[in-house]
Amino acid sequence: MTPIVNPGVAEVVAQLRRRLDDLPPASAHRRTFLETYLRITEAVGRAVAAGGFEDGGWVSGWDVTFAGLFLAAHDADASGDGAPRPWRLAFGADPALPPLVHVLVELNAHVNWDLPQALLAVLDDADLGSEDLLASRRRDHARIDEVLAAQTAAEGRRLNGGLVGRALVPVNTRLTHRFLPRAREQAWRNVLVLAEGRRGGPEAYAARLQDLDALSSAKVTELLDPRWVLPRVAVRGFGVELPPA
Fold first, then answer.
1. CA distances, 54 to each of 51, 151, 177 (Å)
2. Does residue 136 contact residue 54 with C-beta atoms inside 8 Å?
3. pLDDT above 90 coverage of the chain, percent
4. Which of 80, 184, 187, 193 has the greatest count of CB atoms below 10 A from its CB?
5. Whole-angstrom Cα distance, residue 208 to residue 199?
6. HEC secondary structure over 139-159
7. CA dihedral defined by 38, 163, 102, 226, rounded to 10 degrees?
8. Rounded CA gap, 90 and 8, in Å?
C-alpha cells in the first residue's frame, strides 16, 4: 500500500485517531463516521502521494482545511461549546439509528456545510479570477469523486451488516455513484455564491452563510428518519444549492 507522505494529511489522520481514542462510551455511535472519515482521508493522502491530481499541494491544503472544520465541530460539541447547527443536528441523531444512517447524516453536514467554506478558504481572488486556474482546481475537486467511489465501495461492505443494513445497500450504492458527486458539484457552485458574498463585505458574506446554514440544517433533518432516506434523497437529492444573490 502506498504510504501517506504529505505531512498535512498525515496530521489530519493522527488527529482523527486521537478523537477516536478519546471518544466517550456515550458517543460510541459516532465512532463509525470517524473511522470512515479516517480511512477516506488516508485514501486521499495516497492519491496525492501517487500524483493523482494536477496540484497535489492545493488538494492537500484543501483536505486539511476541510477536515479542520469537522474536527472543530466535533470538539465544540464534545466540550459543550456548541457546534454549528448542521453538525449539532447530525451529532444529536438517535444513537439507535443504523450505523450507515449516522454516516450519511454526518457526511451530509460535512459536504453541504463545511465543503463550500473549505473550498473558499483555499481559493483566493487570483484563483477565482483565472479561468484556467479555476478550471484546474475544479478538475482536482472532481477527481476526489474517484477516490470516494473507490473507498465507499469498501465502506459499504463494512456498514451493510444485518437486516437494516442490507435494506440500506441501495442508499450506499446510489450515494457513491450519483448523489454524492452531484452534491459535491452543488458545493462547488455554492463556493461561487459565497465568493460573491465575500466580495460584498462581512455582512453580505454572513448573510450567505446564514442561508447555507438554513439549507444544510434542513437537509440533515430530512435524513434523520432511516425509513425514508432513499426516497427523500432520490427526490430531493443529497446536496443543497444557494440561490444567486
1. 8, 21, 23
2. yes
3. 64
4. 187
5. 12
6. HHHHHHHHHHHHHHHHHHHHH
7. 150
8. 27
Count how many domains the chain has: 1
Cα–Cα dist 30/26, whole Å: 9
Torsions phi, psi for 80 (to 5 deg): 85, 10
Cell reading at 175: 450515494
Sign, CA dihedral 153-155-159-164, equals negative
Residue 245 lies in a domain: no
**What is the structure's pLDDT at 229?**
64
Any domain includes 26: yes
Q: Is 122 helix (H, G, I), strand (E, B) or coil?
A: coil
Instruction: Answer yes or no: is pLDDT of 164 > 50.
Output: no
- Name 222's Cβ contacts closer than 8 Å, sequence gap at least 6: 232, 236
pLDDT value of position 207: 96
Domain span at 23: 7-236
Residue 220 inside a domain? The answer is: yes
DSSP 20-73: HHH--GGGGGGHHHHHHHHHHHHHHHHHHHTT-SS-HHHHHHHHHHHHHHHHHH
pTM score: 0.88
Residue-level pLDDT at 7: 67
107 dihedral zone (left: phi>0; alpha: psi -120 to 50; beta): alpha
Q: Are 168 and 98 in contact (CB under 8 A)?
A: yes
CA gap 88, 217 in Å, rounded: 9
Whole-number mean pLDDT of the chain?
86
- CA pair distance 105, 219, nearest whole angstrom: 9
Distance CA 125, CA 229 (A): 38
